[in-house]
Recover the amino acids of this structure.
DNA sequence: AATCCGGGGCG
DNA sequence: CGCCCAGGATT
């Protein structure tokens, strides 16, 4: 397979974005000199759909409590879910602990550095595997998150926003922008993400502060509106299963003893929906249901708690 | 490719 | 109140 023709913009854009990053990079704890590969992975999992400002304090507390995969692997799952607190999508916390246990059992407690082994870890997908390779191990990889997608959509494709779904063609185009050299590729990954997070933002891009404004095809075209706007649909929230599940998880995180079914029912008005959500939470491993034993169990004696 | 999965803060 | 946030797993 032939490599795609290099974008004539790429070399200059990379140089200017990396130079900008050298000056403007945020001082985030998972970028500190004393960081560990495991700490980088923890940050990436926490950052999956949760903003940096909310992750930073949680990450500090988490790494102080469980600095290594072995520490997290040995923790009670209830403690892990409580420490996850309100970062959202608590299945990520379960996956992270499963990941820690896999690292201990299959990799001697040290995070692997090859793509396939990283992708095989629970909760690690294409983005996270690439990010860990670049940021923890300084290796070349195609790091394509929502920030890089937006930067490339604007600078290279001249579009306001990337398509709702990532395509193979987009991944291939992004790969063509990644330098061959390991260290240069890792710097481009970090710099392009940071530009998307701080300057080339989704809502109000600060083109006046952009190091590549004079090379941006979207800006040159007069900042045309989003071509996919008519297809975007906001995810509903009020009254959804996700809200109900969140209520239950919040209740169980606070509880110091198993919670009777009636007390769980008090946090959600729709009994049928709550029953469905509780079944799903139990199936997901986020909640444990304790049934009263005996031949004639009393359903009202059923209790719920966090696992482990 | 489409859905589901939390939660909060900002314009 | 819509929209966005360093996505992943499942179907």
């Amino acid at each position: 397979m032939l490599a795609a023709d290099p974008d004539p913009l790429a070399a200059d854009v990379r140089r200017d974005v990396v130079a900008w990053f050298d000056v403007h990079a945020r001082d985030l704890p998972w970028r500190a000199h004393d960081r560990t590969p495991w700490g980088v992975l923890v940050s990436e999992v926490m950052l999956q759909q949760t903003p940096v400002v909310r992750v930073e304090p949680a990450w500090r507390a988490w790494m102080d409590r469980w600095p290594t995969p072995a520490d997290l692997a040995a923790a009670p799952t209830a403690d892990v879910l409580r420490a996850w607190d309100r970062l959202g999508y608590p299945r990520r916390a379960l996956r992270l602990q499963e990941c820690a246990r896999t690292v201990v059992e299959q990799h001697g407690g040290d995070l692997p550095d090859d793509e396939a082994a990283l992708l095989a870890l629970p909760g690690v997908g294409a983005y996270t595997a690439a990010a860990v390779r670049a940021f923890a191990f300084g290796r070349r990889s195609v790091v394509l998150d929502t920030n890089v997608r937006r930067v490339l959509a604007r600078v290279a494709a001249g579009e306001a926003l990337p398509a709702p779904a990532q395509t193979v063609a987009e991944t291939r185009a992004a790969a063509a922008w990644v330098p061959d050299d390991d260290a240069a590729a890792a710097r481009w990954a970090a710099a392009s993400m940071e530009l998307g997070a701080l300057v080339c933002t989704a809502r109000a891009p600060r083109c006046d502060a952009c190091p590549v404004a004079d090379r941006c095809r979207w800006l040159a075209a007069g900042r045309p509106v989003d071509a996919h706007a008519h297809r975007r649909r906001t995810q509903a929230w009020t009254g959804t299963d996700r809200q109900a599940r969140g209520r239950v998880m919040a209740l169980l995180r606070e509880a110091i003893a198993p919670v009777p079914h009636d007390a769980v029912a008090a946090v959600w008005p729709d009994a049928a929906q709550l029953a469905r959500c509780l079944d799903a939470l139990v199936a997901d491993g986020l909640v444990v249901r304790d049934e009263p034993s005996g031949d004639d169990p009393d359903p009202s004696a059923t209790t719920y708690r966090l696992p482990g």
